[in-house]
Amino acid sequence: MSSTTSSSTSRKGCRPEFSRPLEWLSGSNGHDRTCRVPSDPRGVGPGELAIAHSYLQLTGRSPQGTERPKAGLTTAGAHPPGAMVCTLLDISTDSANSLTPLSSVTCALCTPYKPSLYTSDGRRIRVIERIMAPTPSYDEVDAALCRPGTIFEIEEKMIRGCKIKTWKRAPVHFRQFFEERMTKWSDRVMLSTPRAESLSEENREVLTYGEVWERSVRLAAWLRDRELDDFVWKRAPVHFRQFFEERMTKWSDRVMLSTPRAESLSEENREVLTYGEVWERSVRLAAWLRDREVRAGTRVAIGGRNCAGWMISFIAVCLLGAVPVLLNSTLIVDAQLHCLGLTKPVLVLCDPENASVLGSVASELTARGVGPIHCWSSLSHVDPAVRSNVSELVPGFAVSSKSLDEVRSGKGFGLEDVTPESDCMVLFTSGTTSMPKGVLETQRACLTHVISSSIPAARAIMRMGGTVEMALAAHDPPEQQGAMLLAVPLFHVTGLLGWMSRGVHMGMKMVFMKRWSTSAAVKLCVAEKIGVIGGVPAIATAILQSPELPSDHVMEGITYGGAPPPARLAADIQKKWPAAMATHAYGMTETAGLHTGFMGPDYHANPACVGPAMPVDEQRIVDPETRKVLGPNQPGIVECYGPNIMKEYIDNPAATADALRDGWVHTGDLALIDDNGFLRITDRYKDVIIRGGENIASAEVENAVYADTRIAECAAVPVPNNVLGELVAVGVSLRPGATATARDIMAQAAARLRAPARPVFVHVYDDALPRNANGKIVKTDIKTLVQELYLKDIAENGRAKL
Q1: Residue 512 belongs to what domain range?
Q2: What is the pLDDT of residues 100-117, one digit of tens each?
Q3: SS3 state of residue 756
Q4: 134 near 81, Cβ under 8 Å?
């Protein structure tokens, strides 16, 4: 149909003006009406025809072109000038099963006389009039719909640091949504659904809203009986800003750090800072970050070895509620490119060593969406060609007073919207077999450790007969300041959450090491009067065995996890330091550190175990293939659940879905839970040696080898065999001053092992076994070397004894 439009039809919010619209004329009594319809249907606007077409089709009635008595109609009042009038015809009875042909509808509407107000069988229809004023814009419509008091009312809220419009009357949660609606319509049919056990769509069950509601309530009660709700620490800090502010201002006069200088390669060139000094430097750096638009939720990368600059950078980022991305600075450049490209931080803070690496690929980092690189120390030793790509944060760097005021007050950058479920930090997996995965942790997950770390001591006190008051005091910082050796890198979950957060909570002096050296560690223990050591078992073992440590040096606590310790380590600690409390804990990056742990007599009696789960956490053992939950003493893969579980792997939904199912993280560690509820890790699933179809846990072999007092470290790895697939081999290092041949070691181990688990080859390292930056033994490196030497030995001396 043709129509004439005004010149304004192309503007948003306008509509065509039709020259011959349908028009209703009011009768003298205001109720009787006549209809004037143009004889030429081309003058009728398409909007009016479309509305009428749709309605008359749906009614299934075809109005006749004959005169009938006029119906009483309700007037809508006077029409505004230029208004367009449209009618909708409504029949009070049910519509017919079929639609009236469109041609019949058009014919009825466009006859030269008014349409009938009666159906063909004499039933009256009602004419509903709608005034069609010029079409309002979407903004005008939204303003009318969303005005205060309506169901569509809008309010503004700060979410994730941004001002967001939300529906004011939206349900708070799905519990409210379901309860309000399902109880309202309890008698209505809600579901017609195929029965679960049937393959046919015809075998169905019908349920009302009320029936579904009652069944849901009953199932929720069943779940409640199984305690699958989440438990969290009620008094844990909300975010790291609160954690640092409360504790660092409390301990302002205490020494916080004894740390190597960033530009120095020596552990002896150190600086000492109090909690107050570190706090003020962190506040100033946070203000500098604010001047660069860093706010709550912004990602900022930190790269470097343990030093004051690293610690100050981390605290500064946390003061803003921003998200630190913690780079493993020991990774090769390709891996660091991957980590930064994955997280896309707005800027990078690093030490000179890391600045040299990242500065050489600055253009590629920019191409991947990574912000500028800034070094917290002098770049004088950095290659001039690289130095131009890195900015040096010289002492006394300028900051605005506005940003300083914001940082001190905690206002103006979105901190008020940071909750326990907000993003807290990004840690990276080791990446020994593939590129590291970025683990996104929440504030709650990370800060759960602050309270959980006191539980092993509190439990041990009560297990030894102490009172509840004595046990609760285990969480309180002692009046006399202690000192801990922090040799594990801060970019690792053990160093950061396991040790740093515990040290700050207890107001301890933290003695940093940049690189591990047994000799340097022992010197620091003596010079700094260190009473707490650990991290990974290798650190505790090395210090324990060192002949350089004075015999009268007293240790108060030794805590370790992250790798299986030698079975004899607990007994060795008790023998050397009878008053020291040894703690064995289990956790991983995906659990934000500590998940299980115990200390004292329970650990000494069960040295192969890592204790029970924390009160807010859960653990279970599942079948490696089916993930079916197994019972006590049945070996399988351990899964962990609790408020400390990671949020996701960044930009890796497939890996996240595989690792996280219904909140349970699949660890990949072979374990069992004994009758006491203690978790016993037997191996990494991928480290199991399969000999002729029989699984041999590497820990089984290693514990037998460690029984030989000459052994400092060992690692069991597979070597290839054409008949049985794999055989057992071992790489070892010896204690200082000890001597042993491979044949001696094999003979000693064979006496303690079942036949399939006995090593067929042993390689004795001249020095310590290879480790990564976290202190963990790198089995992939040992496996490569041992297999190479084994195959060479077979070629020269014949096949191995099976």
Answers
A1: 453-682
A2: 443 443 344 344 433 333
A3: helix
A4: no
